[in-house]
From TrEMBL:
Record's keyword terms, sorted: Membrane, Transmembrane, Transmembrane helix
Organism the protein comes from: Bacillus mesophilus
Pfam family, one: DUF2232
The keyword Membrane is annotated on this UniProt entry: yes
Cross-referenced PANTHER family: DUF2232 DOMAIN-CONTAINING PROTEIN, MEMBRANE PROTEIN-RELATED
Positions in coiled-coil regions: none
InterPro entries, A to Z: DUF2232
UniProt-recorded name of the protein: YybS family protein
Parts of the chain that traverse the membrane: 12-38, 58-91, 98-119, 170-192, 213-232, 238-266, 278-298
Native organism taxonomy: Bacteria, Bacillati, Bacillota, Bacilli, Bacillales
Tree of life domain: Bacteria
Length: 312
């Protein structure tokens, strides 16, 4: 009876995954939303039946992906299938939210790296170079159009855009890390509500204001900042590692700064709209983002929260 129920549940989860997969593949606008739900069938099934049953579902999903999609669509099944199994199993054994976030992020990042390596090595396609080439073609077309209309071209802006493209290519490892963490967070956000309704006890996220990063990160940040001052070959692995580590740590300082702003507003009984407005404006106004990062650095280095508490 138990096996029959598990098979029935697995068949339902497989059907649900294929529906979400086909919607993602063939319905562009809606697919951009269903993309983030692809891991949910694996999370739910693994949280109820364990990782071994999750792997059986994953194997079936791979076969059906090749039948109804294509071999080129397999990376998405590998990414969301394996990531979903790990997250679901961690829910099953009652791991904390942050443990699930860390483990899920590592799995997503590793799979993304493998997919990227396969694409660049075997298919001889470099996504970054392809994107750069497409943007450069667009720039050249815009330049030709403006010249034909007799309009002047701002060479300084074009040069800045070219530098931005080179900068983006160097940040590919950071992008992969960010995507891995983001996918895990979204998966947790969506799946926790579903699992709660199914009767599974799911730990709630602590308030954003309570997030405090390890104080040791400030030293890593300072070391990375000093290392960035040394002249290194831009194509060297050392430069790439330091460059990406520095920018990842910068993002963490921003996170710490935003968390402190929410914390400060909460303890001063200020309107909730104030920190939310600062959060939105920070990503629209670069100078404000710099100030938020500075607040994060000071909070980590001098423990500003204890001073807010003492003055309360």
């Amino acid at each position: 009876m138990g096996k029959t129920k598990a098979l029935t549940e697995g068949a339902i989860m497989l059907a649900l995954y294929m529906i979400l997969f086909l919607m993602t593949l063939y319905i562009p606008l809606l697919g951009s939303l269903t993309l983030f739900a692809l891991s949910l069938p694996f999370v739910v099934f693994s949280s109820r039946r364990g990782w071994k049953s999750g792997l059986v579902l994953f194997g079936a999903a791979v076969i059906f992906t090749m039948l109804f999609g294509s071999i080129l669509a397999l990376p998405s099944t590998f990414l969301f299938g394996l990531g979903g199994i790990v997250i679901g199993y961690l829910y099953k054994i009652n791991r904390s939210k942050f443990e699930i976030l860390a483990a899920g992020s590592i799995v997503y990042i590793l799979i993304l790296l493998v997919i990227y390596a396969i694409i660049t090595t075997f298919l001889k396609i470099n996504p970054v170079e392809e994107a750069q080439r497409a943007i450069e073609q667009s720039i050249n077309m815009s330049r030709e159009m403006m010249e034909s209309l007799g309009q002047t071209i701002n060479e300084a802006q074009l040069e800045q855009l070219q530098q931005a493209l080179e900068f983006a290519s160097l940040l590919m490892p950071t992008v992969i890390v960010f995507v891995g963490v983001f996918l895990t967070f979204i998966t947790q956000l969506l799946s926790s509500k579903i699992l709660s309704r199914l009767g599974l006890q799911v730990e709630k996220w602590p308030p954003f204001r309570s997030i405090q990063l390890p104080r040791s990160l400030i030293w890593y940040y300072l070391i990375a900042m000093v290392a960035m001052m040394f002249p290194l070959e831009q194509d060297s692995m050392m430069f790439l590692a330091i460059f990406n580590l520095f920018h990842i740590l910068q993002l963490l300082m921003i996170l710490q700064g935003l968390s402190f702003i929410f914390y400060y507003c909460y303890h001063k009984n200020l309107s909730k709209g104030i920190p939310i407005t600062i959060l939105i404006l920070s990503f629209l106004l670069p100078f404000l983002l710099y100030l938020v990062r500075l607040i994060g650095i000071i909070d980590l280095g001098f423990n500003l929260r204890s001073r807010v508490e003492s003055k309360k």
